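User: We ran a pulldown and think these components assemble together. Before we commit to crystallization trials, I'd like a predicted model of the whole complex to look at. Sequences follow.
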Amino acid sequence: MIRRAFWVSAATIAELLKDRTIAGVFFVGVAMIFGGYVVAEMAVVERMKMFVDTGVGAVFVAGVFITLMAGSNLLGREIRDKEILCTLSKPLPRPVWVVGKTIGLLVAVAVLIFSLATVLLIYLKFQTNVWKPEIFLACFFIYLEMVILCNYIVLFSCVTTQYLSVFSGILILLAGGMADDLKIYWDSASPLAQGMSRLLYYALPNLGAYSPGPVLSGSVSVPANLLFAMVFSAAMYVIVAVTLSALVIRKKELA
Amino acid sequence: MNALEISNLKKTYKTGFLRKETVAAVNDLSFNVRKGEIYGFLGPNGSGKTTTLMSVMGFITPTSGKILVLGDSPGSSKSRERIGFLPDNPVLYPYLSGYNALYVVGRMFLLSHSEINKRIGALADELGMDRELRLPVAKHSRGMRQRIGFAQALINDPELLIMDEPMNGLDPMGRKMFRDVIMKRREKGKTVFFSSHILSDIEMICDRICVIRDGGIIYENTMKGISESRPGETLEDIFMSMMGSGK
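Assistant: Here's a predicted model for the assembly, 502 residues in total across the polymer chains.
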């Protein structure tokens, strides 16, 4: 089964990297990184910071678009276009197909995000003559955030339409970024507000924790145990979401 | 010995906003496909052909009834290793070339690299594929997609070949080629079960046919039996008289 999952992943990666829409978003991301020059030129001070912030922002925006488009289409398109009928008529159990597709998606998103990070690093060296390898750590944080978002979208796409799964993904991205703010209501006088805020806090992914800002400003160092906790937490999201997606697809009527 | 056994198959769908109405797509359908025969599955649009094929492949769960595919339950990995399936309007990895798409399918059967190349080469010769293997599947015409779809169904040299409207979108040469390939499989002792609207093709290659309407069988016979019981009539005449008279 591992070999079959590997080949599903390999086909998914090849398909995603050849998808013109995703390639288009990648090139928009590259253009936005180059556009950092204009922003930096307008800055009176901290030219370097403007370059880095614009570039990492470009990686984040491109990452979100790629994740939303690829994630919402990953399983949904195959089911909608009946492509799945050819694939699943082979000795390939449905859960293995879901696992293979999800791994393929996560690898493809990694390739695109770290390719953009490499473009940013080289462009930064070219423009400012400074090597700033922290950019890779910042982009790794962005990648972990996208991993969590990907899995939510893939799960939503199993139970709803492509557009609704994109919409739900945007909501998760916005709400997950503000999850820490919910703690304000934990001491609220209303028991309902207390209960709801606690429920939402634990249900939503805390995407704010994956913010690359502190890493880039150099104000915070990232200890290995924190990095491990972040990777572990993202991996847990992947396992739970893939399990739920596999359960949904296992029961789904495909025709 | 039967390659496919269907007994009392029933599939209903819930319709309407509150899902309270029930529509039967297939109703108490029973038939067998014997090993080594070509079995044609006929019926007008909406008669339940595709629902039956999807149930046989395990893509949908029947409401009731029993299906045995090569002695196993539908959808089991064991039976799928011995089956080839061609859906209606097959789509396969649209951004991959035909060769790469077939290669991935071969890997699903855990075939080795050299074995896959050997089989793709043989299928390319048999099905007349050349451009199909080089171009991305998304750029294929309907007929080219059908050929690639046929090749993916044959790559594991299946004992049972199940096809939904295989002749759709093919030119006369393509249809002849398909017929030849199907006949060649029968000579090798393989079983073929397919649905089609193209009655002349069915007449030419099938050993037995079954006609369904409103989810139930209205006629089943061998081609020899048909020609003996209704001499001088084509399958189209017989089919039209069945549909028109409401038998």
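Chain A touches chain B at residues 3-4, 7-8, 10-11, 14-15, 18-19, 81-83, 85-93, 253-255 (CB under 8 Å). That may be worth checking against your pulldown data before setting up trials.

User: Thanks, that helps.
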